[in-house]
Amino acid sequence: MDKITNKELSGFIAQATAGNKDALEAVIASVQDLVFNLSLRMLGTFPDAEDASQDILLKVMTHLSEFKGDSAFSTWVFRIAVNHLKNYKKHMFAKLPLSFEFYGDDIRNGKVEDVPDLTQDVEKSVLAEELKMSCTNVMLQCLDVDSRCVFILGTMFKVDSRTAGDILGVTPEAYRQKLSRVRRKMADFLREYCGEYGGGTCRCVNRVNYAIQNHRISPAHMDFNAAAPVPLETILEVKEAMEAIDELSEEFSFCKTYQSPEALKQYIQKFLEGPALAVVRNGRAAQ
Fold first, then answer.
1. I need a labelling partner for 253 at 20 to 30 A (CA). Which of 15, 106, 198, 231 fits?
2. Closest alpha carbon to 213 in 141, 120, 95, 82
3. What are 128-147's pLDDT values in tens digits?
4. Per-residue pLDDT tens for 7-66?
5. What whole-number distance in Å separates Cα of residue 236 and Cα of residue 232?
6. How many helices (DSSP H) and strands (DSSP E) are in the chain?
7. Cβ neighbours of residue 209 under 8 Å, at least 6 residues apart?
8. What is the pLDDT of residues 237-256, one digit of tens each?
9. Residue 193, CB half-sphere, CA atoms under 13 Å: how many?
10. How far apart are alpha carbons 217 and 209 in whole angstroms?
11. Alpha-carbon distance 244 to 208, whole Å?
């Protein structure tokens, strides 16, 4: 749907909590891409992000009557999403934690030249682009969950420190300091190892077959290539600009945003066709 104004959104929220299905659908549509992209970066994979997004959007719908307008609606949604994702244990990397040391060792010592052609007649350049997006996304899993959240809010969503501090329950100054440290850590790794975004020797096109062999990408399921990109400004309300806290603002061009998967939209639609309005109106969490 087209981006709606803050005034229109306030009206939709009021109508949704009064039981208007179309208004509720508009409210959820205004934040579902935000929720999905935050989940994707926090969890690492499309399937895990889709599952978590369903949970988060369900929470948004069933707690909508608790939104009092003391902050921007997107801030309120961010807070729900962040709290859910920081404690989410059902994703792949909760069981298989990563580290920059592991990533660096794999880049240095992975036997990429020993792997046969596994591209299945898919253009290698297409697979390399899939690997580039997947690798940089999964790389975020090398950060602890709090640092990952700070990095994503400040670098991908460019949330100002006052708002981010409100979301995370820290002072703006503490947030700025941690964001600067985390961005430098990420930038240092990219500069040392990555040939796509830094000065390293690793090139995605040379690691395509190695990545397929290790189940990091699949020629049959290219989630990043299949996802439709969406400009960040279309999924966020007007907000204060992110402060220039360091010189790294333009270092992370891999932080792209995508439209929600069709399956997530269908899940929301199915929920709206059920007893959702009574749940929203009464402000009760779904069982």
1. 106
2. 120
3. 999 999 998 989 999 999 99
4. 889 999 999 988 899 999 999 999 999 999 999 999 999 999 999 999 999 999 989 999
5. 7
6. 15, 0
7. 112, 115, 116, 117, 118, 119
8. 645 555 666 666 556 777 78
9. 21
10. 9
11. 36
